[in-house]
Amino acid sequence: MTLATATEATPTPLSAVDHVRAMSEYGQRAEARAYALGNRGPIRVGADGKLLPEILESYWANGFYVFQGVTGPEELAELRADIDAVLSRAPVTPDATIDYQGRPTIDHGILKPPYRWAKPLSDPVGGTDANNGRHPAAMLQPDPGKDAPTWTVELLDGNLHLSDACLRLYGHPGLLTAAASILGDDFVPYNEVTFVKEPGLGPSVAWHQDGTTHWHAADWDQGAHGFNFMTQLYPSTAGNGVWVLPGSHKRGKADIKRMVAESGSDRIEGAVPMLCDAGDTIVTNRQLVHGSFANSSPDRRITLNAGFFPRKRVLNVTTKRLNGNVETYDLTRIEARTRILQIAIDARRQRFPQETPYAYRPMIGREDENRWNEATRAKVLKNYNQLDMFI
Known about the structure:
By secondary structure, this protein is of the alpha+beta class. It contains ten helices and 14 strands.
């Protein structure tokens, strides 16, 4: 097996089988390091209503924490069914008008196309100017084989208006308690997507750090760009999961291109996979160096991603979004986006009445205007992701 390097003029083709072998060797070395971090367990809250100090200390030390057993079997089944239903209605190709069963594709009046496509096992953004150039080094792209489809869905955009089960998960009281513990009671939501890594098809997401705005701020800190919740509908493994460089969120803007060059491949030394079971949620600092490899493994990964910011890092900030648009996030804009969170809390209350709903401090007293019903679905939730924010 010969793996292509950045110095080869004509890279040697890499088979999916060879990629599986290389990832297996890399993963075996890293899995023990991942578990040794000790940053996993159920959501546990102290008398002050916040995460226990040892959980917060572990999160800030490593940059991520695995919350185990966040969704039970019934809720997990509902989430899987909703995502599978959305995927089943995807067009057969990006510009097609029918789905895989020959049915006309559905246009629900959603302004931002919900399906994002990529070539199987490809690297769509590594080494390009895409996403404000935050993916400076390309990943290996194994050959998916002659029977692979031309395109695969790599991402669903707008979880909350695509899936009622995702909306209910968004209002999970344990996760929102964790958000307040990390970011403060006035935390701000910003974006929700589903990462789709079908076995033998899922493309890579080249190494990067999510933040784009505050790296050189005088008051920069290790939490300046917030975090993502990553709820896994299937087990996250070394072969299909996201890898991170623990502690890298503390060290400012990383020279990822140099890291890849020094490692001799896209398999950065010292990185670990974020391993977990179905129904677990990983909270991941957005400043961590992280990425995922082409999913040449036989295991599916579906990740429900939901991100949050510290309010002070967003309010009245002007920035360029990943699509190039320049926007200012004033209080009116932030409050419009946070309405969705209160609607999600009410949707969860209706589905899981045995739970104590989370009290989101910025919306206390505005619960009645943010109830979950068909009117708010049409007037508030639909196209809510037009208000997404990025820093």
